[in-house]
Design a protein that fits this description.
Elements (H helix, E strand, L loop, with lengths): L19 E8 L4 H17 L8 E8 L1 H16 L1
Parallel strand pairs: 1-2
Length: 82
């Protein structure tokens, strides 16, 4: 799943030149090798299609376990029931 929000003001390194911040969350699918491939693909898109220089974006990778995600979903469901 990919969500892009364009035209959002962002200050990165003290300027408002083109920049990007990305969070990649997976349920047990990330590893150093996968992260490297994803980073390269995303960097290519940011640099060639969106004109965001290498020094102006930050990518965060987060790998979660399926049982943590299911527990979080149960907590949210319980909150909405009250």
């Amino acid at each position: 799943m990919v969500v892009l929000k364009g035209s959002v003001p962002i200050s990165f390194g003290g300027t408002e030149q083109p920049a990007a911040y990305g969070e990649l969350v997976s349920i047990g699918g990330l590893s150093p090798d996968v992260n490297k491939k994803l980073s390269a693909a995303i960097a290519n898109i940011l640099e060639t299609k969106l004109s965001v220089p290498k020094s102006r974006y930050f990518l965060k990778f987060y790998d979660t376990k399926a049982n943590q995600t299911q527990e979080f979903a149960r907590c949210l469901h319980a909150l909405h029931q009250n």
